[in-house]
Design goal:
69 residues, mainly alpha, flat
Length: 69
């Protein structure tokens, strides 16, 4: 659900920090979803859709910048 199974961290301290950050983000999304009357997945989809729409309309990196050497 939150992608911890794909974590490449080897040290215990880094693993704990990664898990703590993931849990904080999950709890924040859960609280926000409850306030808005949505599921976490609906909220996540909505946020990602808005970001994708924004990037397609006003790209942060122009393709002409990549192609010109």
């Amino acid at each position: 659900m939150i992608g911890l199974e794909r974590c490449q961290c080897r040290l215990n301290k880094i693993q704990r920090n990664t898990k703590a950050c993931a849990m904080l983000a999950w709890n924040y999304l859960k609280k926000l979803a409850t306030i808005l009357g949505q599921t976490i997945y609906q909220l996540k989809h909505q946020l990602l859709s808005k970001y994708l729409f924004s990037e397609l309309k006003y790209p942060a990196i122009k393709t002409t910048q990549i192609l010109s050497f």
